[in-house]
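Q: You know discrete backbone vocabularies at least as well as I do. I have my own habits and do not want them to colour yours. No explanation is needed for now; the record alone will do.
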Amino acid sequence: MNIKEILEDPRLIISPTAPPEQMVSQFGSYLDLLVKWNQKINLTSEKSSQDILLRHIFDSLQYAAFISSQDEIVDIGSGAGFPGIPLKIIYPELVTTLIESQRKRCSFLETVISQLGLTAIKVINDRAEKTSPKRLVEAVILRGVSDIKSCLELATPFLGEGGKVVLKKGLEERGELKQPIYGFALEQEIVVTGYNNKKSSLLVFLKNSI
């Protein structure tokens, strides 16, 4: 399985604005960097480019169904760049901020941005709750950060009324939705299938006026 086949997978709802050859080249460079840096610091438990492609890049591209290429987004707890970097590759216009608390991972993200020639993207080395946003954005995305309530609390300072939070949760975690969620309304929930056929929920919350 290669990135071209991933980009054409019918389970993904994506309309890339980047040229196909540019995406293939940038994803290839991204995977090469991930494999190389994984030998020095722990970025992902998956060590081969194929496993990273199927596990992390495929999952990250599922977020594209709820993100416009014209948005400005914040990726909280970006880690190795998921899902922010794959979204930025397919939507070059996407104004992106990656927030990551670990300095070594930030160094990796900065290297990726430089070597892939990405623009309108920056890395903030800090915890999200200690970050003071300079302006509000259209969407906050999170992947594997915390429980739903905590994710929404982290996202709140970055969003104005109508701003959205997109996050993924396992089906077994849906019980969290029964708890009161102050300041947000669940707009959409879709069940998605990962490349390993494991199902999970993509949740989209809209920030209410308070």
